[in-house]
Amino acid sequence: MVHWDVTFGLMAIAFVLPFCFLWFKLDAMRRHAHNCHTELERLRYESRTLEEHVRKDKNLFLEALGVPFLLVRSSGRMVMCNHQAGMLLGVDVNRSVNLLRVLAEESPFRKVVADAVNAQGQMQHSLQAELGGELRVYRAISTPLGNADRHIGIVFHDVTEEHRTQVIRRDFVANASHELRTPLTIIRGYLENLLEDDAAAANEEMRTRALNLMKKHADRIVRLVEDMLALSKLENAEANYLSMKEFDLAQVVDDVRLRLEGLMTRQHAMLHLDIEPRPFMMTGDKFYWSQILFNLMENALKNNPERTINLHVSAQKEPQGACTICVQDDGVGIASESLPFIFNRFYRADVTGRIKGTGLGLSIVKHAVEAHGGSIRAESTLGVCTRFIIRM
């Protein structure tokens, strides 16, 4: 009986032990699988986090470029695009669209993309496009990256201000040459007449008349050169040309009145001052403020040579520290179609040519006011009044 009990026990142990071992092995494998799954989820989470960081860094980099930039495939499909480029091209930066299909046939940007994907090397384009209701000028540079996917990077540089500067310089040189040519031609003509015509040179009356006219036009050249130098200095924002000191504006107006006294007497003009408080202390370059007021007051007198005018100069301070300066006359006025252009170089509202000047006075005024951190605007009603308002 005991023998069978031992035998049965041994048989039970022989069957149970493998099952116990297998159970422990399966449980260990289950725990290992669970740990592997947990680790896999952790890696997936870290991968998603890393991808999100890479995406954010990529977007930050694209936006930090400060210029419109896009990356396209050789097929024209967009790979990357910052918001500036999206606004410029009118596309959704989050959609991988084919620019050769979504951009209109007549769009200058489509031509840039088409030429970029077909070019073997770097290319440059100049184009104009409207952005925010304003016509802008861009220089587009496309560069093949040479990677396996044959990506092409395209960057757009806004060169509107550079283009405007070139146009302004070209017009300035052309206008200055024209303004200088006329008096120089007259001076040369009188000189040739005096040198080649002995009778004219011997005639004292004719000689005096010729010399007076040459002096008049030489003075015009000197005034024009001085105005051009002043304007050039004012336009150079980097130059430390302003001598900022405290001065009395009322005293500057009195000095200008003395300089214009002869012209005002000949035209029977009346000057009215309304400057409060006295003294009216300001901080700025006294020389340039003298130029500002002189040009505005002289401009009013010159534009009304056959009309007695009342000239008003007023200045008021505000509690916040700002001040308003106004120069007004009751002369012929300025036509509404001319008002937007009167501060342009060499622009003359008078098309008859009767009113003499360099055509730079109001441009100097505008730049001098802006150099002091102020602004100026003009208002006029024909036959009633003209008013220049300076806001500091």
Short description:
This protein has 392 residues and is an alpha+beta fold. The chain has 11 helices and 12 strands.
Topology:
Blueprint: H1 2-64, E1 69-72, E2 78-81, H2 83-89, H3 99-102, H4 108-118, E3 123-131, E4 134-144, E5 152-158, H5 160-196, H6 198-202, H7 204-235, E6 245-248, H8 249-259, H9 261-266, E7 270-275, E8 281-284, H10 286-302, E9 310-317, E10 323-329, H11 361-371, E11 375-381, E12 385-391
Parallel strand pairs: 7-9
Antiparallel strand pairs: 1-2, 1-5, 3-4, 4-5, 6-8, 9-10, 10-12, 11-12
Spell out the key features of this protein.
Helix Hairpins; 11 helices; 392 residues; single chain; 4 domains
Overview of this protein structure:
This protein is elongated. The strands form 3 sheets. The chain has a 5-stranded antiparallel β-sheet, sandwiched between helices. A 5-stranded mixed β-sheet has the order 7-9-10-12-11, with helices on one face. Helix 10 (286-302) runs antiparallel to helix 11 (361-371). The protein has 4 domains: 1-64; 68-158, PAS domain (Beta-Lactamase), CATH 3.30.450.20; 171-235, Helix Hairpins (Orthogonal Bundle); 245-391, Heat Shock Protein 90 (2-Layer Sandwich), CATH 3.30.565.10. Strand 1 (69-72) and strand 2 (78-81) form a beta hairpin. The protein has 392 residues and is α+β, with helices and mostly antiparallel strands. It has helices at 2-64, 83-89, 99-102, 108-118, 160-196, 198-202, 204-235, 249-259, 261-266, 286-302, 361-371, and strands spanning 69-72, 78-81, 123-131, 134-144, 152-158, 245-248, 270-275, 281-284, 310-317, 323-329, 375-381, 385-391.
